[in-house]
Design goal:
Elements lengths: L11 E6 L1 H12 L3 E7 L9 E3 L2 E3 L10 E2 L5 E2 L26 E6 L7 H14 L6 E5 L16 E3 L6 E3 L4 H24 L10
InterPro entries: AB_hydrolase_fold, BAAT_C
Pfam family, one: BAAT_C
GO biological process, one term: fatty acid metabolic process
């Protein structure tokens, strides 16, 4: 990426959403040159086995028998994931304390896919336990799993591309739409500060 003509360098920022979040956590933890990472409703464990060099980080244990069905017939998966802090899951935690740069966690308080606020708190406690800076955590009330760029229609439910099932993601439309605008501004501020060294920025109006 650093060799790409559109990449300014000398460092890189990452933004990951959902499954992309734990991938970005892993990249920030194991790769050099990453100085800022934004996670949107992300897990702090690997939700699929991660293979890196001669190491394998196992996946977080899940139980599909705990899938719930809403009154509208949509599935929710929040309760299928086990607690990352339980002894049989501790090897699945991403060693984010190895990361070189700071983290910003954006959390939808009505996320129906997984317990994003709980995961962000785990990350905060782990970083501080290793003497690292506490991450910035922004909690968005009445906001679901899919926090998109501003003015995208709120995605409260859709057919999951991998599972092929109709999934409910949560969120109240008005609050979720506002959160998408606010999150976009917070992301820009975070990246400008940690990649460009600017404390104040002129926000994009897209």
């Amino acid at each position: 990426m650093l060799q790409h003509p559109k990449v300014k360098g000398p460092s890189i920022g990452l933004l990951g959403f959902s499954k992309g979040g734990d991938l970005c956590l892993s990249m920030a933890s194991f790769l050099k040159g990453i100085t800022a990472t934004v996670l949107i409703n992300a897990c702090v464990t690997n939700t699929a086995p991660l293979h890196y060099k001669d190491m394998i980080i196992p996946k977080l244990v899940d139980d599909l028998g705990k899938v719930k069905i809403t009154k509208s017939g949509f599935l929710t998966f929040m309760d299928t994931w086990s607690n990352p802090l339980e002894e049989h899951n501790d090897q699945s935690l991403v060693p984010l304390e190895k990361a070189q740069g700071p983290f910003l966690f954006i959390v939808g308080m009505d996320d129906q896919s997984w317990k994003s606020e709980f995961y962000a708190q785990i990350a905060s406690e782990r970083l501080q336990a290793h003497g690292k800076e506490r991450p910035q955590i922004i909690c968005c009330p009445e906001t679901g799993h899919c926090i998109d760029p501003p003015y995208f229609p709120p995605s409260r439910a859709s057919v999951h591309a991998v599972l092929g099932e109709a999934i409910f993601y949560g969120g109240e439309p008005k609050a979720h739409s506002k959160a998408q605008v606010d999150a976009w501004q917070q992301i820009q501020t975070f990246f400008h500060k940690h990649l460009n060294g600017k404390k104040s920025v002129k926000h994009s109006k897209i």
